[in-house]
Design brief:
Elements lengths: L2 H7 L1 E4 L14 E4 L5 E6 L16 E3 L3 H12 L6 E3 L1 E4 L8
Helix pairs in contact: 1-2
């Protein structure tokens, strides 16, 4: 399946989570893609890895699955300016394993 076709197959649902105005996790919609969840990992540059949960300003989410990320981003732009979420699988990184 090509990427543009996959964008057209992404379904959308209304977010069913708590609606707390103070929470950074208030979403309007949740994307349901036609493929398994995207895998993400928390990563920080060398020398900045001493920070622990919660994420600090030097830690970010990364994925090596650019095709799925592209599809999800394209699908989310259809609903802008609404806040859109997607379910992701968080992986544990082995130090020095991500290059």
């Amino acid at each position: 399946m090509n990427l543009e076709a996959a964008v057209g197959l992404v379904e959308v649902q209304t977010f069913q989570g708590p609606q707390d105005p103070e929470s950074p996790h208030n979403y309007d919609l949740v994307l349901k893609p036609p493929f398994p969840n995207i895998e993400i990992v928390r990563w920080a540059p060398p020398g900045m890895r001493k920070q622990s949960i919660p994420m600090g300003p030097t830690q970010h989410w990364y994925t090596k699955d650019n095709r799925r990320l592209y599809v999800l981003q394209r699908a989310a732009t259809k609903y802008w300016p609404k806040k859109v979420a997607v379910e992701a699988d968080v992986l544990s990184a082995v130090p020095n394993a991500l290059r």
